[in-house]
């Protein structure tokens, strides 16, 4: 058997973090078993489905590296096929026309509410002759559901789950206007796409019992269900925007790497011993549904940020620089010239060790891209450039003119010699020097900065600071 999974988001909003994890689990399971991972856009809700949302989902999945097999399936385009199955069930006596009017149904629900019983369709047209139908009422097609016995699901995550069939009503398959319902469309699409494993959030578990009624009525193979627990916030409450329940695009904008976000989402509800840093290759090799827990996982932005810092440090500069340069250009309003680009390349290794996100990396790196006097970051930095400090920097500039070796260690020795010759502490030189060269009181090591800037750019910045 070829394993086939699917991710089936509704394009009514962004690709949220829970959906991204569901997509990841489906992708990993299919790749682990050498199967297929399919993408279906469930756009049957025409009032709420939007093209921008579809594009955001496709873009988010591509950015995460969750490539799907084959073309994207759009559910709405398959409405005729869904209706065909409903009419087949009608012809086989597994479904029936219901002529109950909206007013009748509301009166039925009101009576059920008053009686304190569960609200569900009471089957009033289940065995009636359509000849009794009132004039002018367009019927819906309802499933003739099993009324006795139990429906049992051997869920790959939740274990055995059972519901009494008496709790399931005759749900609508085809609306009065001929459009299929979500429940019917999902089952037909999964069957036609040969889906073998339905991996989704456990908020769909109740849907599975109802969908199985259709599958059994049609005599189709039952998929393996795996309902994964939802994600909660770090405080254990339902995940919301205050916890970080944002779209995947927001995490990209905040400077997170797709590899880091994938790794973090993988560890939300799935584990492999004590392993925390898991490469994509290892994830594909190790992932199986047996490792998915039954308890909700907790989303923690701090942990995600720390994990991202690890991936940032480990990423080769040659891969990182293309991600950084467009953001640098956006900050500058222009492309860095050849000399500035060389400084960026030389300074990247040191700066990325001190950065947690791409945004931080760019903020910490951009001073290398500017030529001449850097913008002073704040009053604290400006206060360090006193008249005495400026005079000291002017003397330092003259002393550095004689230096020929600008490697980091040699720069440290040169600055220490200068401080000693001037009878001042190293910090009295290093702090104003840092502001003069970077515009900030916080930067990579000052000797590293000198080495990266080199003699010409250092001379320019010291001249501007000492003036």
From TrEMBL:
Motif ('KMSKS' region): 238-242
Motif 'HIGH' region: where in chain: 9-19
Any one Gene Ontology molecular-function term assigned to this protein's record: ATP binding
Residues involved in ATP binding: 241
Domain Aminoacyl-tRNA synthetase class I anticodon-binding: 328-465
The UniProt record lists the keyword Plastid: no
InterPro entries for this protein: aa-tRNA-synth_I_cd-bd, aa-tRNA-synth_I_codon-bd_sub2, aa-tRNA-synth_I_CS, aa_tRNA-synth_I_cd-bd_sf, Glu-tRNA-ligase_bac/mito, Glu/Gln-tRNA-synth, Glu/Gln-tRNA-synth_Ib_cat-dom, GluQ/Sye
Domain of life: Bacteria
Keyword field: Aminoacyl-tRNA synthetase, ATP-binding, Cytoplasm, Ligase, Nucleotide-binding, Protein biosynthesis
Function description: Catalyzes the attachment of glutamate to tRNA(Glu) in a two-step reaction: glutamate is first activated by ATP to form Glu-AMP and then transferred to the acceptor end of tRNA(Glu).
Protein name stated in the entry: Glutamate--tRNA ligase
